[in-house]
Amino acid sequence: MTHLISTFNDDDRIAWQKLVLLVGLGVITLLGSFTGPGLVVRLFFIVASGAIAFYLYSKSTPEYISFVFWIWFLAPFFRRFSDYYNGFDDLGIMILAPYVVTLVAIIKLVQNPAQLSRIGYSSFTLALAAIAYSFWIGWLSNPPVAVIRASLDWFPPVVFGLFLALHWRIYPQLKRSIQKTFTWGTLLMGSYGIYQYVIAPAWDVYWMRNAAINSVGRPEAFGIRVWSTMNAPGPFAIAILAGVMILLSYQPPIFLPSFLTGFLSFLLAGVRSAWVG
């Protein structure tokens, strides 16, 4: 095995490192949910996710981007699993992990602020300025926690989009990384989505009852509007639709299982507004 790994190029080695770190993060979080204090597990997940993101950022932009997508795909699942064994967390602090890993990209903006003045990035800078202005207005008239929480829904995606735009020179590598991530992500999320609909796992049912969100269906088998490993049917439908469309664009070796599980779970989500793309 050591000899085999030594024959990989740098990109392959970092890709394997990302896989090992991601799987290790998931395994430790799941095992910790059984045995460890809830707060410790939740904080570990956030800190470890951020540390891995920073490491990958420093080693490989494509693998960092892939890791960001994976954390967005999986963090809500780990939150529900932890809640089931450690008690419902009203704050949902584990959901901070996707924002943390995404905001690692801001390092690029801070290191190269002159690039933001180029005309090609003006739409991003205008969006960031609008968010900053909205944050200031909100801060003056609303509770700070609510303002910060609302800003997290707007600021990180724009920063991440700008980060992608700034790396246009390595577009082929980014494209391959995103294609692979969504191919396997669609297979995993699609498969779990079908399992969720048929079985209604205890942690998902527990979350539905405590979160008191009526729009996700009934907490029973064949009654759930599928949201798979994500936190609601709407975001899941958009993510899985993107995965299905990416699959159609290049048809990888695992096209058929990924497409079938992804498309079926997309339909089971019941988000009709997403059916028209």
What distinguishing features does this structure have?
0% strand, mainly alpha, 277 residues
* Cα Rg: 19 Å
Assign a percent range to the helix content.
Answer: over 70%
Structural domain tally: 3
Oligomer kind: single chain
Task: Tell me the β content.
Answer: under 5%
- Structural class determined from secondary elements: mainly alpha
Q: Give the beta-strand count.
A: 0
C-alpha end-to-end distance:
44 Å
Shape: globular
Task: Walk me through this protein's architecture.
By secondary structure, the chain is mainly α. It has 3 domains: 104 residues, no CATH class; 54 residues; 109 residues, no CATH class. It contains 13 helices and no strands. Helix 10 packs across helix 13. The longest helix has 29 residues. The mean pLDDT is 92.
Short description:
It contains 13 helices and no strands. With 277 residues, it is mainly α.
Which SSEs are present, and which pair or pack?
Elements: H1 2-6, H2 10-35, H3 38-59, H4 61-86, H5 96-103, H6 106-111, H7 122-141, H8 144-152, H9 155-166, H10 171-199, H11 202-211, H12 233-250, H13 255-268
Helix pairs in contact: 2-3, 2-4, 3-4, 3-5, 4-5, 4-10, 4-11, 7-8, 7-9, 10-12, 10-13, 12-13
